[in-house]
From TrEMBL:
Protein's recorded name: Apple domain-containing protein
Apple domain segment(s): 1-52
Chain spans, region Disordered: 77-106
Organism placement in taxonomy: Eukaryota, Metazoa, Spiralia, Gnathifera, Rotifera
SUPFAM superfamilies with a match to the protein in the record: Galactose oxidase, central domain
Transmembrane segments: none
Record-linked InterPro entries: Gal_Oxase/kelch_b-propeller, Gal_Oxidase_central_sf, Kelch-typ_b-propeller, Kelch_1, Pan_app
Lineage: superkingdom: Eukaryota
The UniProt record lists the keyword Transmembrane: no
UniProt keyword annotations, A-Z: Kelch repeat
Amino acid sequence: MKACYMTCLTDINCRTISFDQFNNQCELFADIPSQYGSLTAQAGVTSFIAVNRQLSARKQRLDASITTSSTTSTTTATTATVTTTVTTTPSSISSTTSSSSSSSTTTSTTTIIMAWKTAANMNGGRDTYAGSILTNGKVLVTGGSNNGYVIGTELYDPSTNNWTTTANLNTARWRHSASILSNGKVLVTGGQASSGYLNSAELYDPSTSTWTTTANMNVARSQHTTFILLNGSVLVAGGQGTSGTYLNSAELYNPSTSIWTTTGNMNVARSQHTASILSNGKILVTGGQGTGGTYLNSAELYDPSTNIWTTTGSMTNARYYHTASILSNGKVLVSGGQGTGGAYLNSAALYDSSTNTWTTTGNMNVARYAHTASILSNGKVLVTGGFRDSSFVLNSAELYDPSTSTWTTTVNMTVTRRSHSAFILSNGKILVAGGNDGSATVNSAELYG
């Protein structure tokens, strides 16, 4: 193959290998007289349709190490066997096709470096914003910062790769949160604005593309966490409040009554922490920054049936601005962040809810905080960007494999970014959008997968 760019589509069966034609010289496996498959050209893209190519669930995506083969024999005057092997790694694809008969053997090998695909730019740049995936598959991004507090919101449509503006928030805000309710509406809570810390909340209705205010929280807060409980209520916990006070308070929003009620306080006041819902319905919060700016290694559990928080061991490293991901085995992977003494962390830890214990796991290749973490359909975790130190913003990405407890680097993003967001689309791709490149807020977006 020459003058082509190859990717394997990110579905479980991975039956199609697409080749982007940079010019009309794009050829697939040049000089091979017998290839089992078909070529079709459409809008500058050529696709080779593989036959009987099934991938195991463990090897189903580009970010895995995949080797597949398909063999067919045809009885003619001579017997010919054609074998196609495609091998992918996080950064490259090697494709070898051989054709053998009684008289000759020809082999062609091509290696293509994989890359992130740029998506359409947002209409405006933003960092430290909140976003949600709507029930229709579109992505809603709200507020944030861009040389001031952002009031605008917009929608990304994966089917058209377009961003469109939608109605403005009632209040410009950043360091807020956004949650999808069971009725499909989006609840935005708290954050900061020119007036200070906010206790206001508002609802976005996708059916009318409008924002309406709802009841205020009992406590103004930013850099808090929100999570949807199994009963549909929204749990808001911690953050920073008036005068920058670190909060241990928590409250519940009832979507059916639009009423906020206080619930049990956390044992430790914390901000910039993480929250994860476990298979038993409890909420795990980890780390963060506490009173006096102390970095925290503590963790605690909220039980919705009792409204009580209980401590549950401590991580080896104190950290904030880290990420937490629920793995397919039920464990929680915590990675990166900033720790004691302002150290930037590459360490990671696992929480096992069945034993309520923490264990260390493999370190990331690069220390980072203010990054993102996303679960891929093959169970691996993709982390992107963030700060490496106080002045260096990353475009690197890497993958955590729960089966080996190891991290491997994957292709760099096209743009350095921190304080961005990542969204898992219905097609399995990861959309990364916005953030700050170290000198300015960006409006760029890109797709992985």
